[in-house]
Amino acid sequence: MYVTEEGGDRMAGPRAPRATQAERRARSRNALLEAAARGLSRYGYGNLVLAKVAAEAGYTRGALYHLFAGKEELALAVVEWVGETWAAEVGRPAAAAGDPVDALLVLARGHAVYCRRDVARVMRTLHAEFAGQDHPVGRAISGIVERLVTEAAERIAAGRASGALPPGPPPRQTALAYIGTLEGLVSSLAGQAPHDVELTERAIRGVLGLPPVPPSR
Predict the structure, then answer these.
(1) What GO terms are given for molecular function (predicted)?
(2) How far apart are the first and last CA of the chain?
(3) Alpha-carbon distance 137 to 65, whole Å?
(4) How far is CA 196 from the centre of its chain?
(5) Inside any domain, residue 42
(6) 3-state class of 12 per DSSP?
(7) What is the pTM of this model?
(8) Residue 19 included in any domain
(9) Are 185 and 196 spatial neighbours (Cβ–Cβ below 8 Å)?
(10) Is 5 helix (H, G, I), strand (E, B) or coil?
């Protein structure tokens, strides 16, 4: 902004339009969701302190409660938000691959990259925390995991039907191994870029019965 002062008069250039209430609300909501995702990743649901979430996002606890009724609603919103960002950055590019085997490999590589961020750990943290419990947050996480397993099983079955994948254990069991391997590796290799992607693909190829990555790659 260009500003000059002469004789006490102040002239300023044109200012950017003020954000609308909806835009400010969306900005506040996203900041709180990001802070909550980091908090859930580090401390889990039970140890999450909403006042700290609000402070980290730069808001008061009252502002947080203006947007979310409480911890459960906030956690559910975080799960939905992380699911949406994962779908945009990992799920849709994998689906665009077309070939089911390529889709499985694209998803594995993309997931490894996505999980380099702190907020990506929230799903693993909550899934472990709510395992075996009947809780809305746990059910939301389980629903997402089940969809991933089902989708992977369908791609594995399609790959075997086309001859791109060799025969092996039932598609669902192989899909469970695929998801489990993927999650275990990205957790163990946190902060190990770029080796996380290479090692993840190597392991996933083994689960699927594919040969190693060609040397020319």
Answers:
(1) DNA binding
(2) 49
(3) 18
(4) 16
(5) no
(6) strand
(7) 0.82
(8) no
(9) yes
(10) strand
Q: How many helices (H) and strands (E) does the chain have?
A: 10, 2
In angstroms, the CA 26 to CA 51 distance is 20
Output the pLDDT for position 204: 97
Query: Does residue 62 belong to any structural domain of this protein?
Result: no
Q: In this structure, what CATH number is given to the domain that contains residue 198?
A: 1.10.357.10
Burial class (CB in 10 A: 0-12, 13-18, 19+), 141: buried
Q: What is the rounded distance in angstroms from the CA atom of residue 38 to the CA atom of residue 32? A: 10
Check: CB of residue 120 under 8 Å from CB of residue 82: yes
Is 213 contained in some domain? Answer: no
Question: What is the mean pLDDT of each successive set of 10 residues along the chain, which is 217 residues long?
Answer: 39 59 88 95 95 96 95 97 94 95 97 88 92 94 95 98 97 97 89 91 97 69
Separation between Cα atoms, residue 71 and residue 52, nearest integer Å: 12
Distance (Å) of CA 18 to CA 14, 32, 63, 152: 12, 21, 20, 46
**Range of the structural domain that residue 117 is part of:** 70-208
Count CA atoms closer than 13 A to 171's CA, side-chain side.
18
Q: Which amino acid is at 76?
A: L
pLDDT at site 119: 78
Instruction: Please tell me the distance from the alpha carbon of residue 145 to that of residue 148, in angstroms, as a whole number.
Output: 5
Residue ranges of alpha helices (H) inside 115-170 are 122-129, 136-162
Residue 3: predicted pLDDT: 38
3-state secondary structure of 208: helix
Number of domains in the chain: 1
Alpha carbons 201 and 131: distance in angstroms, whole number: 27
pLDDT at position 98, please? Answer: 85
